[in-house]
Amino acid sequence: MADQAQPVTMDQIVSLSRRRGFVFPSSEIYGGLGSTYDYGHYGVLTKNNIRSLWFRAMVQERDDIVALDSAIILNPRVWEASGHVAGFTDPLVDCRTCKLRFRADQLEFARCGRKPSKRPGETPDCDLTEPRQFNLMFETHVGALKDESSAAYLRPETAQGIFVNFKNVAQLARRKPPFGIAQVGKSFRNEITPGNFLFRVREFEQMEMEFFVPPAEAAGWHEYWLDQRLSWHRSLGLREENLRLREHDETERSHYSSATSDIEYLYPIGWQELEGVANRGDYDLTQHTEHSGTKLEWIDPDGNRYTPHVIEPAVSIERIFVALLCDAYHEEVVGERERVVLRLHPAVAPVKAAILPLIPRDEGMATRARALYEELRRYHLVEHDEGGQIGRRYRRQDEIGTPWAFTIDEQTLQDETVTVRDRDSLAQERLPIGAVRGWLDDALQQEWSSPQAP
Ligand code: GAP
Questions:
Q1: How do residues 126-149 score in pLDDT, each as one tens digit?
Q2: What share of the chain is helix, strand, coil (3-state, %, to 5)?
Q3: What is the DSSP string of 84-98?
Q4: How many Å lie between the centroid of ligand 1 and the Cα of residue 316?
Q5: How far apart are CA 67 and CA 53, in angstroms?
Q6: What average pLDDT does range 202-209 have in this prediction?
Q7: Are 440 and 353 in contact (CB under 8 A)?
Q8: Omega into 194 within 30° of 0, i.e. cis?
Q9: How close is the Cα of 199 to the center of ligand 1, in Å?
Q10: Residue 1's pLDDT is what?
């Protein structure tokens, strides 16, 4: 392992995630279920951090956005009105030879099921069907009867739960356009070709915000939200050179969109959509007004009525999670020893600090370490680790991205100071044990940028 000059690969990310218990294949003892994953301890902690940083930026720190948590299974008429029953489809082709299915619009990225693996359709052996439209919504049934009348769908986006609640929220939240409704929750899509770890999965957690604006202001707010969301991704520590904006051309846009730009990240699989910021116009409120008979409009104090236009920043925790791990991953040799380090922003890192007694069987060190851990854990997610040699413990913490380690050693017993080790610079300094809590509070408030930036 040399200092990593090569870009990180998805295999390195998958392997670290597995080794350190961030993410593992779901229902693995039964052979798994294609592209479905479970999150272990550090994965849950990281996801919680991403979610709460999003919520903080989108709701807590603003006056003009309120929260909502709508149901996953809605009245199926919602999905007829929204256009998902008719139009939420991908073109699918089957290969009669290798029996695999592919997205007809992404054949150049697919691999045929026969060896040596080729692009589907590349050899005369491939026998592809004509493309047909495949709806991505998962169907289910509500109640004891399993017939057409009980059919329903797992939501493929959280957005529709927001639109159908527009009237409720607008009345109760005492907000007038421009104002937004934010929601975080699971969405489900029966993707034809899931893959690339968490990048494209069938069950994922979306963070969406629908911002309702007077029609004439829509273009300006679209620009505003693109800018805000790009800054937010930078604030998580994602490196500038790995982020860019890309505008959709007309053929790419979803059925509801009058303009969409993606915030793209340079994943190991190339530039791909991290977050979409769409101008949905009045499409959704108009559709639901027509289908439900309930007027979803705004009446201003002098009686003018209008249907607000909607700007929608939409992202999944999974896409952010993968981008953060790829951006932070680094292999290097330090003092002839190899280490893998995750240089995560401290706000994102699952564990903020490790408390390590140098010699765990030394009662003086053990007692002080335990007391410090019990003090700090009341305020921050910290870890007490007394298993194995100190070097191995440091490496374990480096791999999960813990920004600081406080080590209790012989000197602590004499002068009640501890060593603070910095994950990125490996610099060490000594602090009075009584000052550790204040030091950590301050350190977590500091601005942070990736030491891996050029
Ligand atoms: N409400 C708009 C909407 O759902 P989208 O572009 O289909 O738009 C929004 O999805 C975001 O959800 C994407 O930018 C991506 O971050 C995430 N996303 C979509 N499909 C996903 C999948 N199969 N796996 C993981 N994340 C996904």
A1: 899 999 999 999 999 998 888 888
A2: 35, 30, 40
A3: HHHH-EEEEEEBTTT
A4: 6
A5: 14
A6: 98
A7: yes
A8: no
A9: 10
A10: 47
Q: What is the pLDDT of residue 5?
A: 60
Please provide the DSSP assignment of 282-334 as one string: THHHHHHHHHH-----EE-TTS-EEPPEEEEEEEEHHHHHHHHHHHHEEEEEE
Query: Which stretch of DSSP H or E encloses residue 10?
Result: helix 10-19
Confidence grade of residue 4 (pLDDT, cut at 50, 70, 90): low
In the predicted structure, residue 251 carries a pLDDT above the cut 50 = yes
Our mutation pick for probing the ligand 1 site, out of 248, 319, 322, counting the most ligand atoms within 8 A of Cβ, is: 319
pTM metric for this prediction: 0.95
What is the per-residue pLDDT for 121?
Answer: 86
Atom 20, ligand 1: residue with shortest CA distance: 200
Question: What six digits make up the tokens of 393?
Answer: 């413990």
Q: How far apart are CA 52 and CA 50, in angstroms?
A: 6
* CA 311 – ligand 1 centroid, Å: 15
Would you say 60 and 54 are in contact if contact means Cβ atoms under 8 Å apart? Answer: no
What is the position in ligand 1's atom list of the atom closest to the CA of 320? 16
Q: Whose CA is nearest to atom 7 of ligand 1?
A: 157
43 CA distance to ligand 1 middle (Å): 20
Bridge partners for 354 per DSSP: 383, 405
Ligand 1 lining (C-beta closer than 6 Å): 157, 159, 189, 191, 200-201, 204, 206, 208, 273, 275-276, 312, 314-316, 318-319
